[in-house]
Specification:
By secondary structure, this protein is mainly alpha-helical. The radius of gyration is 15 Å and the shape is globular. InterPro entries: DoxX (IPR032808).
């Protein structure tokens, strides 16, 4: 189970890193021009960049606390925060009539729920 939780955290961290880099460093207009990014055209630059930074922090929070053994309880806390972020993403994509992206966000949400449940209950990090 420990290996499965590490793999799940690694996958989710990669997703968060990719999303965070794009929202933080790609201009909003360019994001809005791509399929799935239309919502950014209706959001402020500050909001999009803030989401990007939160995703970068999630990528870090899913891996580094456990690897460095510094506050490893932050891994499941980060997973819970990701769940909340995905609820918002699902609502946003639903409003834009993007059911495929809603389902993709649901997969990410379930992956985060698995990590949170696994690290809070099944295989918590003990110090």
């Amino acid at each position: 189970m420990n290996l499965a939780l590490w793999i799940a955290a690694g996958l989710l961290a990669a997703v968060a890193l990719a999303g965070g880099i794009s929202k933080t460093f790609v201009p909003k207009e360019k994001l809005a021009a791509h399929s799935g990014g239309e919502w950014t055209g209706h959001a402020s630059v500050v909001f999009v960049k803030t989401l990007g930074v939160l995703e970068l922090l999630a990528a870090v929070g899913l891996i580094l606390p456990a690897v460095l053994d510094i506050a490893p309880f932050m891994v499941p806390v980060t997973a819970v925060c990701w769940i909340l972020l995905m609820v918002g993403a699902m609502i946003t994509h639903g409003r834009f009539g993007q059911p495929k992206l809603v389902m993709l966000n649901l997969v990410y949400l379930l992956l985060a729920a698995f990590i949170a449940w696994g690290r809070f209950v099944l295989e918590p990090f003990t110090g």
